[in-house]
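Below is how a single chain appears once it has passed through the pipeline. First comes the sequence as given, then the structure the pipeline wrote out for it. We keep one example in the README because the format questions we get most often are answered faster by looking than by reading.
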Amino acid sequence: MNQTFNLNRFANLFLKHTVDNYKTYLMSFFVLVGMMFLSIGFLAYMDKHPVDQNVQIPFFGFFLLIAGSIFTSIIFSDLGNKKKAISMLTLPASHFEKFLIGWTWSFLLFQLFFIAAFYAIIIIINGLFADKYPGEEVQLMNLLSNENRVNVFPLLFAVLHSIVIWASIFFQKHHFIKIAFAFFISVAALVYFNTKFLVFLISEHVKSSMPFIFVELEVDKNYFQITLPEKDSVYVIMMLLVFTIIVWVSSFYRLKEKEV
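Resulting structure:
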């Protein structure tokens, strides 16, 4: 029997993990659905306007990134409890299978359930308020389209997921709070030092910048923004994918070295 991955053993482990955690996952899912329904529904009621793509996109991105990160932060929460950690680490399955279970639930299945729930909520809300805006036909956002850059959210979620799942294994407790604090401090420091470097390298007219995305300059009280050409954005995507894969691999090895 393969000691790294065995399909039958993985299926049994997946079933055990699901049975042990389905109540927590279901409760979290219903809380998320309730928050999305209330917030989007309230906006539709106040605006007296259907939930069009201009509303769908920011709500989708916000809830996907925030809720997905919170859910990912609890996926290996058992490692913070000594008794549960012993049970988990001594379970007769490979570390790769244990990591793959957490990755599957927090990355693949979360997005699957989230996307289905989000579209269902939009359809229901637009149906409930259809009498308030008769004749207006609303299109659902297309996640596969490059229009409005909707398809960037799954990539951003992959990057955040890799960071948070690494933190959930590395930290003993308060995973989300610690990684959120470290993440925002790191991003702020990156933007600050990148801007200072560009001021030194290019000109004192540089006012702000986001690495690999844009540079903003002020010349005679006029603001100009230099952005990355559309054709070159593929290099940023490749860089983010490589970073994500590296952090995922690091997370697996961190789990493999985990001790109680």
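The longest helix spans residues 7-47.

See the next section for the split statistics.
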